[in-house]
Every structure is written in C-alpha cells, then in structure tokens.
Please model this.
Amino acid sequence: MVAKKSGKRLNLTAVLDLNEASALREKLLSFRGSGLSIDASGVERIGALCAQVLMSAEKTWAQDQQPFTFSQVSDAFQKTMQLVGVNIDHLLAKEIRQ
Model:
C-alpha cells in the first residue's frame, strides 16, 4: 500500500516513549480519513506503548480502507519493532523493503 499523493505525511519524533504516546495518538487521529505516510527515519527510541499506538492506527486505516505506510524507518525503529514482536515489512514503502 503506497500513500496517494493526496495523502498526508507524519514525521515521528526521535523519542517515542510513554510520555509521547498520547501526543502520537492525537497526531494520528488528526490525519484520519486520508492516506498516511509515516517517516520514522529520525526515531532513536520507541517504547512498546507507542508501537501499540502505531499498530492500532494501522488497523484503523485498514478498516477505513485508507493507505498507511512507513516511507522511511531508522535501524533503531525497525529493530525495536522486531524486538516487541511487530512485523512492519508489509507496511514499508517498496523502495525500502529488504
């Protein structure tokens, strides 16, 4: 799923910890109703709660039949998602899939 040109883009902050979970949820909800491309290239640390918020958003976008992708991800983001048991390979833009 690739975000349409009319879709929105969200750049994630470097630290996505417990304190950022509510803010992340609100940011995501503000984009609901349109395709969303997420840039996680600057993420240095992500906690399990923010990972849950992102995966919940992915399910919401799927139910809304809207595209939801990660355009870029940092190594730290990808490794942490794998450590918490979340496979995001199907959400990666074609250009960055391995």
Summary: The CA atoms of residues 66 and 97 lie 20 Å apart.
